Amino acid sequence: MAHILLVEDNTDNARALSRLLTRRGHTVVCAETGQQALTAANDDGPDVILMDIGLPDIDGLEVTRRIKADPATSDIPVIALTAHAMADDRAAAVDAGCVDFSAKPINLPDLLGRIQTVLETRNRKAISA
Question: Does the N terminus or the C terminus of the chain have fewer Cβ atoms within 10 A?
Answer without folding.
Answer: C
